[in-house]
DNA sequence: CTTAAAACATACTAATTAGTATGTTATTTA
DNA sequence: TAAATAACATACTAATTAGTATGTTTTAAG
């Protein structure tokens, strides 16, 4: 029961990479099997169907990644505005798990799966709300510690921040270059400063 | 040579609607034929292949729509900040050509096609730059007329604005409700005011 | 060491896909 | 009005798709 878990995880990881690069519909099961070096029997032993595997990717891979790379860096920080800016900078510029030419995995999934599969919407909405809450929380904390104006609407702000992130990810995908990230980050910094 | 043009346009329009709703890969040619009530022979008489039709959608449908609905409203206006806000409000709330559950057509196309068709990237980049330039121009004009601070980086700002738009469109798609648009617009208005 | 179930592997199927080959009908143009 | 070509229509194909049926091998428990 240990090796089986490993194969499952390996399949999820390779599937994620393929889907992230090519899109969900375009990453066929045969593609996945070819890169994972396992057979169809193994795939359908671990997953009822392709959509169930897609949901597993969200819940078992993306969710933990969100917690570690998108939320944890915000917690236990002094200046929330610095923390948020640094997180964005890291995600856009330094993080080498995310590729500029592939955009944001969550946004990609949303774009492609939302019209089709209600379960995907729910799962994606969950992780999105998680991130939103984390940003809202750190902003709210900043109001207490005096880093942020008392009249700032933190929910509104975090929605605005996340929207910008998704948008610039799509922009990077189109431009196929991280260069667009830099002016975005500059303006983002200016925006954050207006919350002081 | 008049009726033929009409069939072609009709096919493009119906194809656009299908692709907008279901995604490019997922809108099969047979789907398109079924809704347009024409046959495969007609389709391949007018278009060399599916991708050429997709490009025609961008160049012959989306480009004119961009000019009329996304750019023209910005021109010949007094207050550029009002003009930009009103444009966003109209696009998100009032425009009934764009559907909240389907997101932004250009962003959808970018997401889906960019990884594997260079021509799509080029075409989409063109219309994107067009919109960016229009926003930059109206901001620049605002600097002259005194509505906007002289030290505002207009290119940076328009990139930030467009990113936000794309992002909130994706958000609306996920939430499947225009309600998320309202807090976004509120924060967007606040952001625009910082440019004064 | 046996045996039962877990964990895979192989070979298929039925449906769908983009695209083609070969027609027929409508529309110009001479 | 006749012939040429534009504008379609029909019937196919080969490839790819998700998924299944039926195996074989590995692993773990008694």
From TrEMBL, chains A, B:
Transmembrane segments: none annotated. SUPFAM superfamilies: Homeodomain-like (SSF46689), Tetracyclin repressor-like, C-terminal domain (SSF48498). Residues 5-65 form the HTH tetR-type domain. One of its GO terms (molecular function) is DNA binding. Keywords: DNA-binding, Transcription, Transcription regulation. The keyword Repeat does not apply. Residues 28-47 bind DNA. Coiled coil: none annotated. This is TetR/AcrR family transcriptional regulator. It comes from Sphingobacterium olei. The lineage of its organism: Bacteria, Pseudomonadati, Bacteroidota, Sphingobacteriia, Sphingobacteriales.
């Amino acid at each position: 029961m240990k090796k089986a878990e490993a194969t499952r995880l390996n399949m999820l990881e390779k599937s994620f990479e393929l889907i992230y690069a090519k899109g969900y519909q375009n990453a066929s099961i045969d593609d996945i099997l070819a890169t994972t070096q396992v057979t169809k029997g193994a795939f359908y032993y671990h997953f009822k169907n392709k959509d169930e595997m897609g949901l597993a990717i969200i819940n078992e891979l993306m969710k933990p990644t969100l917690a570690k790379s998108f939320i944890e860096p915000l917690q236990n920080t002094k200046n929330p505005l610095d923390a948020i800016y640094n997180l964005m900078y890291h995600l856009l510029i330094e993080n080498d798990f995310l590729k500029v030419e592939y955009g944001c995995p969550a946004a990609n999934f949303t774009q492609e799966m939302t019209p089709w599969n209600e379960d995907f919407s729910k799962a994606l909405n969950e992780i999105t709300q998680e991130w939103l809450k984390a940003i809202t929380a750190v902003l709210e904390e900043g109001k207490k510690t005096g880093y942020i104006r008392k009249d700032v609407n933190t929910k509104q702000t975090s929605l605005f921040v996340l929207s910008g992130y998704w948008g610039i990810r799509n922009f990077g995908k189109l431009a196929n270059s991280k260069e667009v990230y830099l002016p975005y980050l500059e303006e983002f910094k200016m925006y954050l400063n207006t919350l002081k």
